[in-house]
Each structure stands twice: as C-alpha cells, then as structure tokens.
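Support reply, case 0932

Customer input (verbatim):
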Amino acid sequence: MVNNRNMLIASLLLLSLGTMHVYADGVGIEGETPDQELLALCKTPEATPEAIETLLKAGANVKAKDKKGKTAIDYAKENEKIYKTKAYWKLNDALYE
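Our regenerated output:
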C-alpha cells in the first residue's frame, strides 16, 4: 500500500542517492517543507537515521514546532530507532547552532 509516509521514505532514499532533487524551491512532497517532513518523519516508526540526516542536509529547521509545540528532537527521543544515534545527536547539536 502506498501512503504519504512510504512516499516520503522513498523520496528521501532517492534524494540521498542523488537520483532525485527536491527542495530547490523550499518545498518537497505534497507541498511540505523540509521542516514539516522532519517533524512527520521523527514521529513514525519508519524513521531512519539516514532519512533524518538527508532532511538536515536539505535544510530542515530542527527548531520548527508542530501544533502540539513539539520539535523533531522531542519525537526522536521517543523513537528507539533514532534515539542516541548519530542522526539524533545531529538534531540535538543543531538546536544550539
């Protein structure tokens, strides 16, 4: 089944392989910005450190908050696939830049 999260993961994979170029205009899948996609990705069990690093390279703002006032790092702390990985620490460090 194809859904938005699967599309996001596939697009991030293609972007990381250099076979897809998005965000040239600051907008990605379904009109979402890298900030919105980073937040959405960190919430999902499908999140991977590689996908997070790709969004960071695409310019995602780690200080962006969702409607609940949470940032990507807040969700990454709750995601055992992400917590304490290299990508997690990159998110954390970016908060202080």
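We compared this against your earlier run and they match. Two observations from our side: The helical segments are 4-16, 34-43, 49-57, 72-78, 86-94. The chain has a mean pLDDT of 77. Please reopen the case if you see a mismatch on your end.
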